[in-house]
Amino acid sequence: MNDLRKETVTFVKVDESSEGQRIDNFLARHLKGVPKSHLYRILRSGEVRVNKGRVDASRKLVLGDEVRIPPVRVAEPAQQKISVLPKGGVRLLDHVLYRDDAMIILNKPAGMAVHGGSGVSLGVIEQLRLELPECRFLELAHRLDRETSGALILACKRSALVKLHDIFRENRVNKRYLTLVNGQWKAPMQHVKVALHKYLNADGERRVMVSPDGKAAHTIFRLRESWPDFTLLEAELKSGRTHQIRVHSAHLGFPIAGDDKYGDFPRNKELARNGLKRMFLHAWRVEFLHPLTNEPIVIEVPLPKELQSFIDRLNHAKTV
Fold it and tell me: 3-72 and 92-319: same fold?
């Protein structure tokens, strides 16, 4: 990499995409390639000014603030050709369920992580930023597991993101999932309130276990349809813990079909031979008030073809 010298002072007006952001994070976004240690040095030295005054790294920016960015040495990024479409050719804009100036609701495909890392070079958020270069701000409002499909909400404005985080934290969003579990579930409706604890296994992978020392978690399961060896459930999340539905159902003795972390592994191999090659968990419905307009938003996402096909096979076997 070559170093480029930004020879002139830059003045940047804070808009909605940066409103509420800390000044250190704001600088990191505008001075890509500059080590964080250097960013903190120019903050301490007073070379960075907000409205002509010195600030510390924790200062949160306000709409209309004027930020003075001094000349700095920026690493020139290596020339790299980035394809807008990842391997497999999934174009996420073809999966948009709802979009306005404040947010996007996406039908996330199974097998795609919501963000890069842990061996994943390109997640949903990175891919969508490539497909929407005009969006100056784009962040996840919540997460879905890599193998879970369905409704995923992203914010296009910082003000919307803050409101969406409040909505999720205060449980003012109605989230419903469809899941196929092994075994015959009998209860028409069952509340599961079992605390969950996150940990890393021997391979450094994230796992969750039932533990009285964990965080409170509440899932409501409703019976939708049953077969001799399987049950289709609707799961309503009243809290948003990692792997919550997967661990709660497995704890009750009804692991999700195809779950490679908490499932019945010999049964999963059999299911794969019979056409179910992924975990049967789908975020099918989300309902909440729009973060900026308070208009009711209700999004329903039918089961993807591979899951519906498996249900069709179960129904066909039941009638033969």
Answer: no
- What are the Cα distances from residue 56, in Å, to 31, 61, 64, 145? 17, 11, 18, 37
Q: Which tokens go with 131?
A: 């497909």
Which pLDDT score is estimated for 77?
45
pLDDT tens digits, one per residue of 97-106: 999 999 999 9
The CATH class that applies to domain 92-319 reads alpha beta
Amino acid at 212: P
Of the residues 15, 24, 56, 145, only one is catalytic, namely 145
Structure tokens at 2: 């070559």
What angle (nearest 5°) sits at the alpha carbon of residue 247, between those of residues 245 and 253?
Answer: 105
Q: Domain map of the chain by residue range?
A: 3-72, 92-319
Burial of 240 (0-12, 13-18, 19+ CB in 10 A): middle
Question: What's the CA gap between 248 and 296, in Å, rounded?
Answer: 30
pLDDT tens sequence across 165-185: 999 999 999 999 999 999 999
Please report which helix (H) or strand (E) contains residue 248, including its range. helix 244-251
312 among known catalytic residues: no
Domain boundaries 3-72, CATH class: alpha beta
